[in-house]
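Job type: complex structure
Entries:
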Amino acid sequence: MPTSKKTETTSPAAGRRRELLATAAEVFAAQGYNATTVRRIADAAGMLAGSLYYHFDSKESMLDEILATFLGELWAGYETVLAARLGPRETIEALVTESFRQIDRHRAAVAVYQKEARHLADHPRFGYLAESQRKFERVWLGTLERGVAQGVFRADLDPGLAYRFLRDTVWVAASWYRPGGRHGPEEIARQYLSMVLDGMAVRP
Amino acid sequence: MPTSKKTETTSPAAGRRRELLATAAEVFAAQGYNATTVRRIADAAGMLAGSLYYHFDSKESMLDEILATFLGELWAGYETVLAARLGPRETIEALVTESFRQIDRHRAAVAVYQKEARHLADHPRFGYLAESQRKFERVWLGTLERGVAQGVFRADLDPGLAYRFLRDTVWVAASWYRPGGRHGPEEIARQYLSMVLDGMAVRP
DNA sequence: TAACCTACCTAACACTTGTTAGGGAAGGAT
DNA sequence: ATCCTTCCCTAACAAGTGTTAGGTAGGTTA
């Protein structure tokens, strides 16, 4: 969990804070975290490098807050889906759709997460990333295995491979997805699910 | 194309050069290009930072050579596949299999490519990356559309979306694939193709 | 033996990086 | 009018960055 300077998100100045985090996430996503200088962020925000340190106490804590708030909202959405206790196929469909909604809302954060998560997981401050990944695997892999047991998913596929396949196909979309494009998140989710579940080939 | 110091790859000292490039690619893949210091590479190679500049004239040219040699071998493999002039489905299958073989051989380079390609494409020196991506799209998207026209692929899917889907699912595997694991590249390709073409769901 | 080349080291350079201490302008509260 | 808070700027620091000039041990060639 990140250490937030302000007490609550409903603070009067929280708007400016979110605004700055949004531009920071945008630059992080475009250039990569390490390649992004704090002066570049300040430039995009219309101020000077030192001024950022009035709002945040380090560059790292910006990244922390960006990733943590994204993961917070993501898991809130997932919990809602899981609470419905749908069947395996319907659960997968709902999880994928929810994931694309999150990509729609947090495109930049997702792109940053996807690029930096792996080597950040070592860093103790970002331990919650690894924890989230474990929870993620438990939910998705569990649903897949439940589906195989119930005979709705094919049993001749390696579950671990299918899990990574599903996970990756969903999140890499953040690298090309642009909000306001031809397809909304629900439509993209529908087509993705159609390909993954029913296949791209014509049935014989 | 990269500017190679040595005239040919069959030089006597080319072995050491390839060795250094391999360790550099490994560190780049693990830490990211920008986050990797030239001293860290030298450390992994068992020498000091300055000594690297006997073999290469900059950190950037190391990255250049890593990516260029990978793309060179990749396209050599693709050309062989395309020269066979197979049907659309068989072409896709052969391209995916060849891609996983390249991941098997150039795991680190692929990981670096996937992480850095997007923001490197702007840099004029790495213009061949964007060119390769265009060629890539022409081949894959063309094969998909040919398949739809011949009735072997479903016509109710957005071709552009299917292309990105296929492309991403193949290359993200480099982020978790480890050579010498349970599945070889051909087996992984087989399962990937089974999921993408025939779907994960049980046929009704 | 002498000259030479290869492959590395030493030691420093110019520059960029994240970060900080102190100042100041604007505006609301008292 | 005074005080105080908010929000930003100025100016600099210390550490780390890629890179380079020159040196040197050891093997190869003449």
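Summary: Residues 1-9 of chain A have pLDDT under 50 and may be disordered. Residues 13, 16, 47-48, 50-51, 54-55 of chain A lie near DNA strand D (CB under 10 Å from a C1').
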